[in-house]
Amino acid sequence: MEIGQLLSSRTRYMSASEIRELLRWATVDVISFGGGMPDPSTFPVEDIAKIVSYVLEAYPHKALQYGPTEGIYELRQEIAKFSETRGIKAQAENIIITVGSQEALELLGRVFINPGDVVITENPTYLAALQAWRVYEPRLVGIPMDENGMAVEILEERVKQLKAEGARIKFIYTIPTAQNPTGLTMSQDRRKYLLEVAERYDLLVVEDDPYSYFLFEPIQVSPIKALDKTDRVIYLSTASKIFAPGLRLGWVIASEEVVRWFNLAKQSLNLNTSNLVQYIFLEGLRRNVVLKNLPNVRDLYKRKRDAMLAALETYMPHGVSWTRPSGGMFIWVTAPPQIDTKELLKVAVTQYKVAFVPGHGFFVDQSVRNAMRLNFTYPTFEQINEGIRRLALALRGA
Ligand code: PMP
């Protein structure tokens, strides 16, 4: 059958496969800095095992049943409490539970984006957010970053221009804390400035925040949502990096109106997030498993970041530079301008047995070709050192 002829026009935007194809060459002896996976030793396995049997004893019928689309009320209440410790004031009614933050990104596309609508992002930004939205055909506008995060002065200029052109700006997407892919954190002043711009031009802000729970440095920043007095920030977070990504549990905190629209959009997508999973995370919060786990996560990832930074310092040739992430899971490396990291990946995987994600896909226009993202949380300390040594050899040979 000619499946190709049957595909929707939307399907042509689904181009994740390119990197998957490259990484498919990765055999067991390849050290991968490619994925975005937590270190499995951070999963609170014993606690989760106890919680699962408790949940199945205490409320088996609810846990194994369909549930409300917006999520279990008690979990939404518990997340409201959890968020309050981070300065975010919310009621259960402001919260919708999603299948990881990734579903929230999809819901944003479904609810807000018409072809040609403008979505503003940091440039580079989270590749899978761009992938989720491309099918809705937005005009993606990227704002450059510096060590203090998105360059908000440039954002303001662009917003002014776009408004003058009559563009329909749907939202500004930011990952302000320990950004994926750069690891950089937006300063508190910038956060306030960003919100001022949003207020001045009456724009929605989407704050994607999987990483602020484990910053490696004592940086004083609050979620932008905590500064939001006009209900224009849609805040996304997730249990993936602080509990276990396999559960696929995330949440959105927003105005009740946005929650209602997300609820409608989610109904046809998957009816509800797994009840069993929601009860597991509810108990995880109630028993303090999440907060208890955080210092271990922070300590391990800080040591792994430091190991990767030290290896980069030791092995990388002149002309290669990298970020010093304040948290999160990634270091962003810039190679000399003549190097195309997609080409480099082929050689790195087949000859040097090391993998990474080429930077192209993180840019709204794929314009930068000499960058790459390295994950430091999943590989072991030995793999970090050996993998960076190999990568440096591949770069010297390129
Ligand atoms: N947003 C960002 C910035 C991420 O880095 C990730 C995961 N790597 C996600 C969203 C999606 O996470 P999940 O669906 O596991 O919650």
State which percent range the strand residues make up.
5-15%
Distance between the termini: 42 Å
Q: CATH topology of the largest domain, anyone?
A: Aspartate Aminotransferase, domain 2
Helix content: 40-55%
Strand order of the largest sheet: 2-9-8-7-6-3-4-5
Tell me, what's the shape? globular
Largest sheet: 8 strands, mixed
Please tally the helical runs, counting DSSP H or I stretches of 4 or more residues.
Answer: 15
Number of domains: 2
Domain Aminotransferase class I/classII large: 44-391
Keywords: Aminotransferase, Pyridoxal phosphate, Transferase
Subunit structure: Homodimer.
EC number: 2.6.1.39, 2.6.1.7
Please provide a written account of the structure.
- With 398 residues, the chain is of the alpha/beta class.
- It folds into 2 domains: 3-44 and 291-397, Aspartate Aminotransferase, domain 1; 45-289, 3-Layer(aba) Sandwich (Aspartate Aminotransferase, domain 2).
- Helices cover 44% and strands 15% of the residues.
- It is built from 15 helices and 14 strands.
- The chain has helices spanning 3-6, 17-24, 45-58, 60-63, 73-84, 100-112, 127-134, 152-165, 188-200, 224-227, 256-270, 275-286, 289-315, 341-350, 381-397; strands at 31-32, 95-98, 118-123, 139-146, 149-150, 169-174, 205-208, 233-238, 250-253, 321-322, 330-334, 354-355, 357-358, 371-375.
- The strands form 3 sheets. It has an 8-stranded mixed β-sheet with strand order 2-9-8-7-6-3-4-5, with helices on both faces. It has a 4-stranded antiparallel β-sheet with strand order 10-11-14-13.
- The model has no long low-confidence stretch (mean pLDDT 95).
- Bound molecules: 4'-deoxy-4'-aminopyridoxal-5'-phosphate.
- It comes from Pyrobaculum oguniense (strain DSM 13380 / JCM 10595 / TE7).
